[in-house]
Design goal:
By secondary structure, the protein is α/β, with parallel strands linked by helices. It contains 9 helices and 5 strands, in the order βαβαβαβαβααααα. A 5-stranded parallel beta sheet has the order 2-1-3-4-5, sandwiched between helices.
């Protein structure tokens, strides 16, 4: 079973007919699905399953789709999101993209278009899951570095040569060699390329990638 087969796609739409059609389509496509009649209902229950993609109707009673998307982003819940609307316009698309929506799909839409976006969302989820796993693996290693070792690491990541780093930090090249050896040992690598990638991932934090599970991040 692939990772995407375990993920759930969610629809938030106040139209009961759309919700039923959505569940039928997802079932026929072999994709686990949940449908909610309101943004409030979604927020109250959505943490029950790992979600790979969310479809949000723009206009709903109470909290609308854009407001719900903004709420998710404020909570650092960065699940791939597709906005659904019967009144698409450039301003709406810009707002949605600024909030991190993956796409805007205009109603009525073709089944194949919706399914393509859902699978694209799942693919983004899985890629971000891999990145997030690497961040979680690297963070404890970076935390094990001393303040001086962290200074040396950042100079290495910046592409500075040994003599430049030593002069910048006011240490001898021999002392620098000791720090570099300790960094490589603690980071469990022998290449500077790994150090560069891992430091960039660590600095990106949770906001640097799509969240891997609804409950992973909180303000």
């Amino acid at each position: 079973m692939t990772a995407s087969a375990k993920l759930t796609v969610c629809l938030v739409d106040d139209d009961s007919g759309i919700r039923e059609l959505f569940k039928t389509l997802m079932k026929s496509s072999g994709l686990p699905a949940l449908a909610y009649a309101s943004a409030e209902d979604f927020l109250a229950h959505f943490e029950q399953k790992p979600i790979g993609c969310v479809l949000l109707d723009v206009r709903m009673p109470g909290m609308g789709g854009l407001e719900l998307l903004q709420t998710l982003r404020q909570r650092h819940i960065l699940i791939p999101v597709v906005m659904l609307t019967a009144h698409a316009d450039v301003r709406l698309a810009v707002q949605a993209m600024q909030l991190g929506a993956m796409d805007v799909l205009e109603k009525p839409f073709r089944d194949e278009d919706l399914l393509a976006l859902v699978r694209q969302g799942f693919a983004r989820f899985e890629k971000s899951k891999s990145v997030q796993d690497e961040i979680q693996s690297v963070a404890p290693r970076i935390a094990s570095l001393t303040p001086r070792e962290l200074e040396v690491l950042d100079q290495m990541v910046a592409g500075k040569k040994n003599r430049q780093i030593a002069e910048q930090l006011g240490i001898s090249t021999k002392t620098l060699d000791i720090h570099r050896a300790n960094i490589m040992r603690k980071m469990q690598t022998k290449t500077v390329a790994d150090l560069v990638r891992w430091r960039m991932l660590d600095q990106s934090g949770p906001g640097g990638a799509t969240a891997v599970r609804p409950g992973d991040y909180r303000p």
